[in-house]
Design goal:
Number of helices: 15
Largest sheet: 7 strands, mixed
Distance between the termini: 100 Å
Radius of gyration: 25 Å
Structural class: alpha/beta
Shape: globular
């Protein structure tokens, strides 16, 4: 449906007419021929059908990946040889960043400028792990003159990668980079809401020279394709990013196989603003932290805790700035908040907006922008005076909605910050160095940013505590996850064995 409003919107040229799986170096339909509809977030109309993978398709993809692992060259290549392929992948992603961003923005509803940044980060993920495996050293332990012990790292096998629909291409690269760098083969199951950009990996990998069967892609629903991948006996590793309830299910389904699991799950991250903070910087950062990526980000600072002496001033300035955040079509470079990914998710977020009107004081937003009568558009929405037991304080909304709550003391701020089941990220704003470090060390979060928004260093561990995850990736933690560490022990002197069975015979 085209209206006068949407007629000004630019649709990407050459959209595919169908999306297939990629198994063993070939694009294929599902074994049973089944498909599912993929919706345009601006109109909620179907724009393409994607192959709907089931157990039979996962079986084929795992078999192709297993053959490439046991018989192909990839796991046996020198780190430098694999590194060259990964650098070529990064070059290709960089050279196609505008096309990638255009498709990602169209498919997910992300603003085009933010989608472009994610495409560039995807290239950097490959470049980082290409460098890391060449520079990597492994431990050696010596007992002089007696024993030498060293660690031999080996790729594990077929890695199952299950990725979410927010910033899909970048988050796929975050898993593909280290999994491939370490010599594993992979089966990727992208989110069903956003399969478009994932379909580009096959061409990029082929052009870069990745051997056939090393990368496989199966589209489909989580309960079908994702479930079959988690339960497949020939997939020893599962890396999953998504919501905590799905993570619990994957944990249970992987348990009988004792699989390696890395799970980055949900968040309800606090941003704590003390009275001595640079309020201008804190407001800019906390606005960006919850409204960028349409609020659909696991590390969003969606609970803002503000010291009471500056609370009223902060809330007034924050609400005024939130009202100025530009909601628009995803393809418009001026847009700061685009369309939410899918009508199901839009309905969920709007239900929290309505709930928030009973749980807090609405100071900005609170509905659909008047100029967007259709599609999944939500005004940046701010609730103040939110009680700590309110659902909008406790539950992950995953949209452009924020709760602001006052505190009086450092101890109260810490108690409020830790008062959820989640523990992914935290943001602390203060000019008191001692307070900053003490607070950071006591807050229950896998990652803390002091006087900063979410600026990532790829060498550092990424992950959460409590319901926000299991394990960490990033830097050497990713290398650890995707490899087995085998200890090899060599005796250098005489064998120092206890002697059994040499008692004199009677």
């Amino acid at each position: 449906m085209t209206t006068p409003l949407t007629s000004s919107r630019r649709i990407p040229a050459d959209l595919p007419t169908r999306i297939q799986h990629y198994i063993g170096g070939r694009f294929v339909d599902s074994v049973d021929g089944d498909t599912f509809d993929v919706l345009d977030p601006v109109t909620n109309e179907t724009y393409v059908a994607a192959a709907a993978g089931k157990k039979a398709d996962i079986d084929l993809a795992v078999a192709a990946a297993r053959t490439a692992f046991t018989e192909g060259p990839w796991p046996r290549m020198l780190p430098r040889e694999r590194s060259r392929v990964l650098h070529r992948i990064a070059d290709l992603v960089e050279s196609r960043d505008e096309r990638l961003a255009e498709l990602e923005s169209f498919d997910s509803g992300l603003p085009i400028t933010q989608a472009l940044g994610q495409a560039r980060r995807a290239a950097e993920n490959f470049r980082f792990f290409a460098d890391l495996i060449v520079a990597q050293t492994d431990d050696a332990f010596k007992v002089p003159g007696r024993q030498l012990n060293y660690v031999n790292r080996k790729p594990i096998g077929v890695a199952g990668l299950i990725t979410p629909w927010n910033t899909p291409f970048m988050l796929e690269s975050w898993k593909l980079g280290p999994a491939l760098a370490t010599g594993n083969t992979v089966v990727l199951k992208p989110a069903e809401f956003t399969p478009l950009s994932a379909s580009l990996w096959a061409g990029i990998f082929e052009e870069a020279g990745l051997p056939e069967g090393v990368f496989n892609l199966v589209n489909g629903l989580g309960e079908d394709a994702g479930d079959a991948l988690v339960k497949h006996p020939d997939v020893p590793l599962i890396s999953f990013t998504g919501e905590s309830s799905t993570g619990s299910l994957i944990f249970a389904n992987a348990a009988p196989f004792l699989k390696g699991l890395s799970m980055e799950l949900g968040g309800k991250s606090p941003a704590i603003v003390f009275a001595d903070a640079d309020l201008d910087a804190a407001i800019d950062a906390t606005i960006f932290g919850v409204f960028s990526l349409n609020g659909e980000r696991c590390t969003a600072g969606s609970r803002i805790l503000v010291e009471r002496s500056v609370y009223d001033d902060f809330v007034a300035r924050y609400a005024a700035q939130a009202d100025r955040v530009k909601v628009g079509f995803p393809d418009d470079p001026a847009t700061e908040v685009g369309a939410l990914v899918h009508p199901e998710h839009y309905a969920k977020v709007m239900s929290y907006v309505e709930l928030g009107k009973t749980e807090g004081r609405l100071v900005a937003g609170g509905g659909r922008p008047e100029e967007f009568p259709e599609g999944n558009f939500v005004q940046p929405t701010v609730f103040a005076d939110v009680a700590p037991d309110a659902r909008i304080f406790q539950e992950e909304i995953f949209g452009p909605v924020v709760a602001i709550t006052p505190f009086d003391t450092d101890e109260e701020a810490l108690a409020l910050a830790n008062n959820t089941k989640y523990g992914l990220a935290a943001y602390v704003w203060t000019n008191d160095l001692k307070r900053a470090h003490l607070f950071a060390q006591n807050v229950e979060a896998g990652m803390v940013w002091l006087n900063s928004n979410n600026v990532r260093d790829l060498r550092t561990p990424f992950g959460g505590v409590k319901a926000s995850g299991l394990g960490h990736e990033g830097g050497y933690r990713s290398i650890d996850f995707y490899t087995d560490q085998q200890a090899v022990h060599i005796t250098l002197g005489p064998a120092h064995n206890p002697t059994f069975g040499k008692a004199s015979a009677h």
